[in-house]
Write a structure and sequence with these properties.
Helices cover 0% and strands 24% of the residues. By secondary structure, the chain is mainly beta. The termini are far apart.
Length: 123
């Protein structure tokens, strides 16, 4: 009959996402590996999904979606009404009020490469 190693029972007390290594024979200690990419923690007390939205990377009032581990990315929702951008940076939409000063009969287009700029008419 073989004796169970310390890591053979409940991963030695280490988080299930990490590798458990047996310590020196007779000492009864285990060594827990590091948490995998996308997780925070020490492997002993647990590994939790890294929250990429915790630092509020999106523009104020824009929804932030944390991507599940192993990713450390996030995705921002749409800019608020009257603004344009990628959700991280939002600028006033030059065409939002009064058709941007363009004639009401022609379309106003915000310039994505020049914040606050606009063109009137077809482009």
């Amino acid at each position: 009959c073989l004796a169970a190693t310390d890591c053979s029972v409940d991963n030695g007390g280490c988080d299930e996402l990490v590798t458990c290594s047996d310590g020196l024979e007779g000492e009864g200690a285990v060594v827990c590996g590091e948490c995998p990419e996308g997780y925070a923690g020490d492997g002993v007390s647990g590994c939790t999904d890294h929250d990429a939205c915790a630092a509020s990377p999106c523009f104020a009032a824009v929804f932030c979606q944390d991507m599940p581990a192993p990713s450390t990315d996030f995705a921002c929702g749409s800019c608020p009404e009257g603004m344009v951008g990628d959700g991280v940076l939002c600028e006033k939409n030059a065409c939002f009020e009064f058709n941007g000063g363009c004639d009401p009969m022609v379309p106003c287009r915000s310039n994505a490469t020049q914040p606050g700029a606009r063109t009137c008419g077809a482009t």
